[in-house]
From TrEMBL:
PROSITE patterns: HTH_TETR_2 (PS50977). Residues 33-93 form the HTH tetR-type domain. Residues 56-75 bind DNA. The keyword DNA-binding applies. It comes from Cryptosporangium aurantiacum. This is Transcriptional regulator, TetR family. Transmembrane segments: none annotated. Keywords: DNA-binding. It holds the Pfam family TetR_N.
Length: 215
């Protein structure tokens, strides 16, 4: 297991340079870029006014002044549109844990970086959970098949492998990300009336418990 995790650590450390930031838009024609911005502006307005239920493709198309087929061709489905609305925030988040100041970014011990990542994710959920819920639940495996989850998982895997070389870093990275699913967060907030700081404290308990059992 130790040799396996050394290899995982090297792999995870290289992921940041191998995967582009999620949301990086390739060069496109000026008219296509204008349509993209109109669609995203309309989608953001409907989300602000009506919540996730307002993010209907027909309504977005009408407000943006484009055909609904244009949205489907451009974004694929409702989840793809939600993901596009999240792109800028995701890019900022990725830049923070890949290149930003410690403890979220490089330069702090692995345990501090793990905790900082999980707390920063809760902060994201506080603002973005309704959109993330659409992006993560449109299909049964939607959360796990986008580049953002792959990068988050590889980042945690690398930190876990650094901290506990004998641990199953692949499994534990999934285990630590599981409580950060948008549906879980929204249930905790609405169903249990949990404040984000209480959720962070609970995640700290999970993290400490996992690492203590592995030591």
């Amino acid at each position: 297991m130790r040799e396996v995790n050394r290899n995982l650590f090297r792999y995870a450390r290289s992921v940041g340079s191998q995967l582009p930031l999620v949301g990086a838009v390739p060069a496109e024609r000026a008219d296509a870029a204008r349509n993209r911005e109109k669609i995203l502006k309309a989608a953001a307005q409907l989300m602000a006014e009506h919540g996730p239920e307002g993010l209907a493709m027909d309504d977005v198309a009408a407000l943006a002044g484009v055909g609904v087929g244009t949205i489907y061709r451009r974004f694929g489905d409702r989840a793809g549109l939600a993901q596009a609305l999240l792109d800028r925030a995701e890019q900022r988040f990725q830049a923070g844990f890949l290149h930003g100041p410690p403890p979220l970014g490089p330069g702090a011990p692995a345990d501090q970086r793990l905790r900082a990542f999980l707390h920063a994710y809760v902060d994201r959920l506080t603002d973005e959970a309704p959109l993330l819920l659409i992006a993560e639940t449109n299909t049964p495996m939607a959360r796990f098949t986008n580049g953002a989850y792959a990068l988050h998982h590889a980042h945690l895997m690398g930190l876990i492998a650094e901290l506990r070389p004998d641990a199953d870093a692949v499994y534990l990275a999934d285990a630590l990300l599981a409580p950060l699913a948008a549906a879980v967060f929204l249930h905790q907030r609405a169903g249990h009336r949990m404040h984000p700081e209480r959720i962070k404290a609970g995640i700290d308990g999970l993290l400490i418990g996992q690492l203590d059992r592995l030591s």
